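Handoff note, outgoing to incoming analyst
You'll be picking up this chain. Sequence as last confirmed:
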Amino acid sequence: MFTQTSMWKRYYAPFAGLLFACNFAMAQNFVSSGSPGAPVLPFDAIADGYVVSPTGVRTPLYTCRGGEKEGYGLQIGRYTPGSTTCDFSYGGLEISVPDFQFLVTSWQNESGGVIPFNAVVGNGSLGSPLAPPPLYICRGVVGEASLQRPALGPVSLQLGEIGRGDAGCVVPYSGKGLLLFNYQVLVAETPAMPIGTSSESGGFVPPDAIHAGTDADGTPLYLCSAIYGGSSHPGKLHSSFGGCNISFEGVEHTVASYFVPRVDWLGIPNYDFPSGTDSNGAPLHVCRAYLNGNLYPGKTQKTWKTCNFGLNGKEEMLTNYEILSN
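Most recent structure output, in case you need it:
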């Protein structure tokens, strides 16, 4: 198996002219933003809100948490692309801190066919009635000379499947099913990221679809699964594909009707995904609420009746909201 140091070099590299950052070092639900005041947004950070400009341009908002060093506890807030802080509410005010973490999906480095005990099943449980045998969601680098011989062109992070007995992660790529011996597997940490599914078709990418891969030209790739050849297979999705691209018997196939794993938001939650801690030690949960046509991520507690977030220097407290929960 390769080391986490080598994975740092391979997954945190120049990518299509941008800094290619993702959750690479170890499986976890939150990852550091990097040097305080100079955050690097992981491409697979969870975008669970947005603001709309007067011209109709929608800017995504990402869940972040911070404030421990400043004595606020581990507060849940939002990150706006281009800013240098995580902004949250506290004591009636909007607080901004430069040292924070991003909410991400959890991926574990593996190689040679190893499947972690807490790997997420990518077929059956993602909406297909065809459950056995289990196939798990994986992703790996394609096109880097140190990983592929011969090199297969510009580097990308492709999505695919791995099953018991496979030698690695099989990804649909360039019309084929490509076997990657070094890869990452989507895992369920404790607590597990709340993930639901929706049935889609025609290449439609629903809101809250999980951005987990990227083509060499920067095209985002989303998780999906589809039934083909009598079984269900995890694959990759982009609107330009016209469906979910999966690998079957060494060939890449596009399936027009498919299932999409999505971050799960509930109006009546189970409060099973604590993500922060208030200054008094009480668990905080991720929530989101609409205000003036915008959707803001924020924080709540089991005993509260509001979703709280900082905006324009003060704390907003809204009674109509959703919670990230299974």
